[in-house]
Design goal:
The protein is an alpha/beta fold. The chain has 17 helices and 14 strands. The protein folds into 3 domains: about 140 residues, Rossmann fold (3-Layer(aba) Sandwich), CATH 3.40.50; about 240 residues, no CATH class; about 90 residues, Translation factors (Elongation Factor Tu (Ef-tu), domain 3). Helix 2 runs antiparallel to helix 3. The longest helix has 26 residues. The protein is globular.
Length: about 500
């Protein structure tokens, strides 16, 4: 039976044959998702919902005052950003510039709609509490609770004014479903959403009402307060659904089930998937291949990671482009090395994030989340493996190879490493040295040899049917390799995707 493990999504380098996420999306849509951050996608999604509700209210489709929706959104947006800016200064924190606006839009769409003049104190309270919860209710600079859920629950308890979830209606549902599916495709949390919906359906024998779809697609799957691994996501989603269903039975008439269930789930996440933020100080950068640089950072606090895992890096900078201030990068160093490193390809006209990083000076700081990801070696060292890497996708394998050398660990691994030209090969000396520890590298020059195909795999590993395959690189290549290996009857395939990578 074929087992295909999906992790992060990573796209960028050109490949002759592209396959879409889950094989369902047109390539143009797939390319759009690859070139936008999940935060920017969520922001656009919520802005469309906000605009749609105003439009539908103007024409009487929704029974609300369009002016109230407009003013509430503007007020919450301004206040959330102002209070967030204040807390950033007080706590000397790093933040995503879009985060406060996203929270403001969520609050706009679940509270009210209300008259701004009559309820300004309520809106002021929930916006301040939402932002404050990110900094006061945090562990090692990582907030525990969903900010919007915490704000509306406290408002309901203290001010007797909670969330109405008014965004949920049959008229807004198509927008919610369409945008929500795009979000899930981007952040790879289908299992989390499915587990919630499955438990809900079992418990009620009915399909979710419209407000629940918004809750699932927007709040439940928030990456910062939900688990990053698939099994834990399933547990998390099922737990939140079960809590939501049981609360009215335990507390008859309880009206704040969604908010409470999500916050309870956030606590569960803290217990089963503890995470934190870390500050890293820039030391230096080195060129490791044509247009490819390795950046060295010293962590301000110790943390453990497993070779193959990644960090979400936050780099606030002036005038960020459409891809924002956060990016996912694999840790290219190995545990035991002095510094934490990331490696990336930088084009001549790079993104604002990469341009800012290229201009870093020694001593400057960057923020990152705790290590995440399941693209790691099996504990059983006797399992024969094939690594397939495309371009910058070699970074997790560099971490694994260096770890093998440092720990004097031997495994039977063949790395098939594809680049356009020899000048694009990164970490060649290290990979060649790792041959003494069982890792043999086959270099593929696509300009001369063409792209990796079935014949190359068979030639490099005649016993390929006995091996576990790991694929890392640009998404079109990974999808093509996955399809080809599946046709070759490979039993276990692990794929490593990075969200939103491009050559710039």
């Amino acid at each position: 039976m074929l087992k295909v493990y999906h992790f992060r999504s990573f796209s960028g380098l050109k490949y002759s044959e592209g396959y879409c996420i889950l094989g369902l999306m047109p390539q143009v849509l797939n390319n759009f998702l690859n070139r936008i951050t999940m935060y920017r996608l969520m922001l656009y999604f919520l802005l469309v919902l906000w605009a749609a509700t105003i439009f539908l209210s103007v024409f009487g489709v929704l029974p609300y005052k369009a002016f109230d929706i407009l003013l509430s959104g503007i007020f919450l947006g301004i206040l959330c950003n102002l209070t967030n800016y204040l807390f950033v200064k007080i706590f000397r924190a790093r933040t995503n510039l879009e985060s406060a606006t996203i929270t403001a839009l969520i609050l706009t769409l679940i509270v009210g709609p209300v008259s701004l003049l009559e309820n300004i104190w309520v809106l002021g309270f929930i916006s301040t509490v939402a932002m404050a919860s990110k900094y006061f209710l945090a562990v090692r600079k990582k907030h525990i609770f969903n900010p919007a859920a915490m704000a509306v629950l406290l408002s309901a308890i203290l001010l007797k004014y909670g969330a109405s979830w008014w965004i949920g209606s049959m008229y807004t549902l198509p927008f919610i479903i369409l945008g929500g599916l795009l979000v899930l495709a981007k952040i790879k949390r289908f299992e989390l959403a499915a587990s919630f919906l499955f438990v809900y359906f079992l418990g009620t024998n009915s399909f979710p009402v419209p407000p629940l779809w918004f809750f699932v697609f927007v709040m439940l799957v928030e990456p910062l307060t939900s688990p990053s691994t698939k099994v834990k996501q399933i547990v998390f989603g099922g737990f939140v659904a079960l809590t939501y269903l049981l609360l009215p039975k335990v507390i008859p008439g309880y009206a704040y089930g969604l908010e409470t269930a999500l916050l309870a789930g956030n606590l569960l996440n803290l217990a089963i998937s503890p995470s934190f933020n870390v500050v890293l100080v820039f030391k230096k950068k080195e060129k490791v291949a044509r247009d490819t640089w390795q950046f060295f950072f010293e962590p301000m606090s110790k943390f453990k990671f497993t070779p193959g895992q990644y960090l979400e890096w936050t780099l606030p900078h002036k005038i960020p482009d459409s891809r924002g201030t956060r990016r996912f990068f694999t840790i290219s160093s190995a545990p035991g090395e002095e510094n934490i490193t990331l490696t990336m390809r930088v084009a001549e006209k790079g993104s604002s994030f990469k341009s800012a990083l290229m201009n870093f000076r020694e001593g400057q700081e960057v923020g990152a989340t705790s290590p995440q990801g399941e693209f790691v070696l099996p504990e059983d060292k006797s399992i024969p493996i094939v690594f397939v890497a495309g371009g910058i996708g070699v970074t997790p394998f560099r971490s694994m190879a260096k770890s093998m050398i440092l720990n004097n660990e031997k495994r039977d691994i063949v790395l098939v490493y594809s680049n356009r030209q020899e000048a694009d090969i990164a970490f060649k000396s290290l990979l060649d040295r790792a041959e003494g520890f069982g890792l043999r590298t086959v270099y593929v020059n696509t300009d001369k040899d063409g792209h990796i195909d079935k014949e190359m795999i068979i030639k490099a590993t005649p016993d390929y049917l006995k091996r576990m395959f790991y694929i890392s690189g640009p998404q079109p290549m990974v999808e093509a390799m996955k399809k080809m290996l599946s046709e070759m009857k490979i039993k276990i395939i692990k794929t490593d995707f990075f969200p939103g990578y491009t050559e710039v």
